[in-house]
Design brief:
The complex is a heterodimer of chains A (931) and B (117).
Chain A lengths: L1 H13 L1 H5 L5 H28 L4 E8 L4 E7 L1 H24 L6 H20 L3 H19 L6 H32 L4 H6 L1 H6 L3 H15 L8 H4 L5 H10 L1 H11 L1 H4 L3 H23 L4 H21 L3 H32 L15 H15 L5 H14 L10 H25 L5 H6 L6 H19 L1 H17 L16 H18 L1 H10 L5 H23 L4 H22 L14 H19 L4 H21 L3 H24 L10 H26 L7 H12 L4 H9 L1 H22 L23 H24 L7 H19 L1 H5 L7 H20 L9 E6 L3 E6 H30 L6
Antiparallel strand pairs in A: 1-2, 3-4
Chain B lengths: L1 H19 L4 H21 L20 H32 L9 H10 L1
Classes of the chains: A mainly alpha (931), B mainly alpha (117).
């Protein structure tokens, strides 16, 4: 069924063409836009014999996100075919019309691209066979219509109208998504066919009211149903072809399409009846009433669209199969006459430069042909016999009469329906009479408007001929189409109905007559009504909407200022708060904290170590202002951490932690020297209690989590590493083999980060002029003699030994605890000791003082070891190893991973020294040491 | 032993969190260091605790989990780099703003802010 994909994808792919062909001129652009639509339309007609003739259901599906129940599934049944016809057919006419409508300065490529995108989205909505996919396309229509409405983005009205449309339809789309997910959860599938067949299941579900309300929110916002109708008139800021397309055949019809689509699944309950029919009835009347008083041609049409959408909604809400058939029929009819009327309004605007009814009149003299076309279309809208609007309106009246559901208020519905019919006649008459008849205002006479270009009229002609033809020979033209689409809507056998023009003298006919005569009278005596209407308070929708948007922005800004006040402390607290809350939840869940995993016995040493670490940690916090003490205390904590590692079978970690400890303490001492001790920056009492809460809850939670994991047995993937360490990596020290072989790519990343951090620190400290403190925190002058002789002597003697130890650790690392990281740190510590004992200048006079190349060389060496394996045809960082016989030392294993480890070693040495030497140099440059 | 280690982790985490919420840079650096200790032991403990079982082939018959160790080893070194970076940032801020407040505020500004609240 690739035809199905093609129908949706042709406009979608075609959307790329117009924009990219813009440089080739307007005609090419319009042709490029029309061709994919034409092709899709032809494909659609090829499907007609099967889908419309035989009532077949075409389906096509590709998996997309099977886990989420989402698939690229499309279906073509009667209903989808009908809508696809409206979308593609009227779309094609709109493209032709738009080509003549657009000014030469308007970017046509963008216009047509957006139009095609919108068209594809609409096609997706009507052919989607998966609920989630339907919502995806639904949202795409909201976004593309936003772009189309705001096409003239330089106009404030266009921007505001577009934003309002997007806000409302987007919010409705979210509600729809929620509703659809609920439906999918209930049914157990997002497949449309399954959902439609599970109507009883859905209606019996306890959540049915919620699902219905959510879906209806989507429907009502999209189809501009009262009280969400106000966005539609403001969307008239769009170019007229867009209005003709969005507001007759497509965008607003998406809502009523959904009513039709979900009819078998959701309709049939009292709740459906009450919600849908009352929203429809209210919209029908409000729209018709407002339409009568619009002075803007497009505004009049917009409100009439709202009113007609209300009519369709009301029909669906009546819960009878016949009413649903009438609703589908009216969808077809409304699309044809409303599109032609919008185009006629656009022609008037195009030729006279105004859409204000009060400044128009007598245009019949200047453009008789357009006047005739518009009059016929308007008569269809009014429901005059022999036009399509009459037929569906008759069916509507008949259904309104037959409503048995409001009880003793049943007379109410036909009465209001007739009243709406009268209003509809009145505004149709106004549209024609005030524009084309009477006397033209002087300004217009001076302007001398004329008929539009030939092909701008063609789309209107096509549509008007359809209005007439359907009105005269309905069975012949739309009989099968209506039957197929109504059957697909109902999902059940069709009721008996007749599309005849003449049903004899009956009540619906009487209502039609009353509506026609009453509407004529209403128009005739409209002046008192206008006066009355002028005195009504008119809430200005954009002002109200803008005001609420502004309020929202103000509230959002206040919230942001509260959360993001530029203080690090506040940010940290916000970050940690969720952690604390999660931890509280964890503690609150109170699982079996002590599992059955055999625990290690506790001995005196462990208790002593823990007590020391706990006491030192707490003391660090309490004594943090006495910096030297705090530093000593935190190094006790670090020492205990190293011993813990040693005790718990992690010699590599213990060695690393120990050597890092040395450099960290040095680093902190250097920083301590510079940073001020004075000043009374203190947290407020509230802040302190907040921090206590955060640290207590997070500390407790993390501790308990750790306890939980440690006392419960768990599966790990480490058996693989232990088994393959010797045969695969050629090393006995599994930790080191993991670092340089199994997860070598990780390690390469780590040393790169280390190099970057070192470079960053260098940059931060470069050209930093710090004033050196002359006194220590207690007010004593810093000692003059900087380098104690004993330390100098010992440190110089230690250096070669330390370097030898480092080499030993590096080389043996593959088989025994050790390796590049540890060896690098030991080397760094040995060299830093020289700095401490002898001063920066002394050291720099003896060793190269530029560590940047060293860091870079280390990273490059590690990376090129990895690349070397690529050269010989193995994946990046594959290692190899062999055995070597060294004299004296004996059998020696050599792995290429050791070269990698050498790179790690060099990087660590370089980075550590780069950082510490740079910091250390800060303290001597200004004091002029060594000069 | 597990309880002892969990206690250490809990206290170090709590102290670390409290310290990184301070207003001056030096305690924040201390806090970050403390938090690194806690996180490293926490990660390490995910491999469960075992004595006399280093993951060196041939040393014992029953090995401890080497993977958390490998992860923590690099984490220790990166942790040092991070602490150093923060320290450099703090020094730069001291050099530029003349204050060791984490937001670069002087004592007077801070007092004024407090007043306003």
């Amino acid at each position: 069924m690739s035809v199905l994909f093609a129908i949706v994808l042709l406009p979608l792919a075609g959307a790329l063409l117009p924009r990219s062909l813009q440089f080739m001129g307007r005609h090419v652009v319009a042709t490029a836009a029309a061709l994919p639509v034409l092709a899709a339309l032809i494909l659609l007609f090829l499907a007609a014999p099967a889908v419309i003739g035989e009532g077949a259901l075409w389906q096509a599906s590709l998996p997309w996100l099977p886990g989420a129940g989402l698939s690229l599934a499309f279906r073509l049944d009667g209903l989808a075919w009908l809508f696809a016809l409206l979308i593609l057919g009227i779309g094609l006419l709109v493209i032709v019309y738009g080509h003549y409508y657009l000014d030469k300065n308007d970017p046509g490529g963008r216009f047509f691209s957006l139009l095609l995108l919108f068209m594809a989205a609409m096609l997706g909505v009507v052919t989607a066979d998966n609920l989630i996919l339907l919502v995806v396309f639904w949202e795409l229509t909201s976004i593309s219509s936003f772009l189309l409405i705001g096409y003239w983005s330089e106009q404030s009205a266009a921007r505001k109208g577009a934003r309002m449309a997007l806000t409302l339809t987007g919010a409705g789309g979210l509600a729809l998504l929620a509703g659809v997910i609920l439906i999918g959860q209930t049914v157990g599938s997002y497949d449309l066919g399954t959902v439609l067949a599970s109507g009883d299941l859905i209606r019996a579900d306890a959540l049915y009211p919620l699902m219905l309300v959510l879906v209806l929110l989507g429907v009502f916002t999209k189809s501009a149903q009262f009280p969400f109708h106000f966005w539609l008139p403001h969307a008239m800021a769009a170019p007229t072809p867009v209005s003709a397309y969005l507001h007759s055949a497509t965008m607003v019809k998406a809502g009523v399409f959904l009513l039709a689509r979900f009819y078998p699944a959701l309709a049939g309950t009292d709740l459906w009846f009450v919600l849908v029919s009352s929203a429809g009835l209210a919209t029908l009347l409000v729209g018709a009433w407002m339409a009568l008083f619009r002075h803007d041609l497009k505004g009049l049409l917009a409100y009439s669209t709202i009113s007609h959408l209300g009519l369709i909604t009301l029909l669906f809400g009546l819960n009878t199969p016949l009413a649903a058939v009438a609703a589908v029929f009216h969808i077809i009819n409304h699309a044809t006459f409303k599109a032609s009327l919008f185009m006629a309004a656009g022609i008037v605007d195009h030729e006279t430069g105004t859409r204000d009814i009060r400044q128009l009149g007598g245009l019949r003299r200047y453009m008789p042909y357009t006047a005739a076309l518009a009059s016929i279309a308007a008569m269809a809208m009014a429901g005059v016999p022999l036009l399509n609007g009459f037929l569906s309106k008759e069916m509507f009246f008949a259904e309104a009469l037959g409503t048995p559901l409001y009880g003793s208020l049943n007379w109410f519905v036909p009465l209001l329906a007739t009243l709406a019919g009268m209003l509809s006649v009145a505004y149709s008459v106004r549209f024609v009479h005030d524009v084309f008849f009477g006397v033209a205002p002087p300004a217009l006479q001076a302007h001398q408007p004329h008929e539009p270009p030939r092909f701008m009229r063609v789309p209107v002609e096509v549509l008007v001929v359809l209005c007439l033809a359907v009105g005269i020979v309905p069975t012949l033209l739309v009989g099968p189409l209506l039957a197929a689409s109504a059957a697909a809507t109902l999902g059940a056998p069709l009721p008996e109905y007749s599309l005849a023009i003449w049903h004899g003298f009956n009540l619906p006919l009487a209502m039609s007559v009353v509506a026609l005569v009453g509407g004529g009278l209403l128009y005739h005596f409209r002046m008192p009504l206008f006066a009355l209407q002028r005195r009504w308070p008119k809430p200005h929708a954009p002002a109200v909407f803008e005001h609420s948007i502004q309020q929202l922005i103000v509230a959002a800004a206040a919230f942001v200022r509260f959360v993001d006040n530029g203080a690090l402390q506040r940010y940290m607290a916000w970050l940690l708060l969720p952690v604390a809350l999660i931890m509280l939840a964890v503690v609150g869940s109170n699982p079996d904290w002590l599992g059955d995993h055999t625990m290690m016995p506790i001995d005196g040493l462990a208790i002593l170590g823990t007590a020391l670490a706990v006491a030192a940690s707490l003391a660090t916090v309490v004594l943090r202002r006495q910096r030297l003490v705090a530093l000593l205390l935190i190094s006790i904590v670090g020492l205990i951490v190293s011993l813990t590692f040693l005790r718990l079978s992690a010699p590599d970690l213990a060695l690393t932690q120990l050597s890092v400890e040395v450099v960290t303490v040095l680093l902190l001492m250097l920083a301590m020297y510079f940073l001020p001790t004075r000043g009374t920056i203190e947290s407020s009492r509230w802040d302190i209690s907040r921090d206590l809460f955060l640290s207590l809850s997070i500390g407790t939670g993390i501790g308990l989590l750790a306890l939980f994991v440690m006392t419960h047995p768990g599966e790990t993937i480490s058996a693989f590493f232990i088994e393959n360490s010797v045969p695969g990596g050629g090393g006995k020290n599994v930790v080191n083999v993991i670092l340089v072989d199994f997860r070598g790519f990780d390690t390469l990343g780590e040393i790169t980060v280390l190099a970057i951090a070192a470079a960053g620190i260098y940059a931060l400290l470069e050209n930093l002029g710090l004033c050196l403190p002359l006194y220590d925190p207690d007010g004593r002058r810093w000692a003059k003699e900087r380098y104690p002789v004993v330390l100098q002597v010992i440190s110089r003697a230690v250096l070669p030994i330390a370097l030898l130890v480092a080499m030993y650790i590096l080389v043996r690392g593959h088989n025994m605890p050790g390796g590049g990281f540890i060896a690098g740190l030991v080397t760094a510590v040995a060299l830093v000791l020289q700095y401490v004992a002898n001063g920066v200048h002394w050291v720099h006079a003896r060793v190269p003082n530029n560590y940047h190349p060293l860091v870079a060389f280390g990273v490059v060496l590690a990376a090129s070891t990895g690349l070397a394996s690529l050269l010989v045809g193995y994946p990046f960082l594959t290692s190899t190893f062999g055995h070597l016989h060294w004299p004296v030392v004996g059998e020696f294993e050599l792995a290429s991973a050791m070269l990698f480890d050498l790179g790690v070693y060099i990087t660590v040495v370089g980075a550590t020294l780069l950082i510490l030497a740079k910091l250390g140099k800060l303290s001597v440059v200004e004091s002029g040491e060594g000069s | 032993m597990e309880i002892m280690v969990a206690l250490m982790i809990a206290v170090m985490t709590g102290c670390g969190v409290y310290l990184i919420l301070r207003l001056r840079t030096f305690p924040v650096v201390l806090g970050l260091t403390m938090l690194s200790y806690a996180v490293n032991i926490f990660l390490f403990a995910m491999g469960r605790l075992r004595a006399q079982a280093p993951a060196v082939i041939g040393e014992t018959s029953n090995y401890t989990d080497p993977l958390p160790q490998a992860l923590v080893l690099t984490a220790i070194v990166i942790g040092f780099a991070m602490t150093a970076f923060l320290m450099a940032l703090a020094l730069r801020a001291w050099g530029e703003f003349g204050t060791d407040h984490v937001d670069g505020k002087t004592v007077e500004q801070d007092a004024a802010d407090e007043e306003r609240r």
